[in-house]
Amino acid sequence: MQKHLDQGKTALILIPEISLTPQTVQRFKSRFASLQDQVAVLHSHLSQGERFDEWHRIRKGKARIVIGARSAIFAPLKDLGIIIVDEEHENTYKQETSPR
After folding, report:
1. pTM of the model
2. Residue 93, pLDDT score
């Protein structure tokens, strides 16, 4: 991931459960200390205003690392360098119902 960030690219980290967000954010902020203010969080438990603010930061390029549940895949990241799927074996990544 460091290689991609050094090249000016962005990163998306998908996590299976929203409850894992705080510890994942802390882990990435400590690992990439120089980019602490460039980590955004996207998930359904954010208020509409919080989600808008994070979306806007991502779109403007002020957040280069996005951490979130499945819906974060739609984050407007520019120049995406890497997608990391944490615990990819989890069933929470699968949609059980068919789209309408």
Report:
1. 0.84
2. 64
91: DSSP letter: G
Alpha helices in the chain (DSSP H): 2-6, 21-31, 48-59
- The superfamily (CATH) of domain 2-88 is P-loop containing nucleotide triphosphate hydrolases (3.40.50.300)
Contacts of 6 (CB under 8 A, 6+ apart): none
How many residues make up the chain in this entry?
A: 100
Q: How far apart, in whole angstroms, are the C-alpha atoms of residue 99 and residue 50?
A: 27
**Nearest Cα residue to 82 out of 62, 60, 67:** 67
Among 27, 49, 29, which residue's Cα sits nearest to residue 37? 29
Residue ranges of the domains in the chain? Answer: 2-88
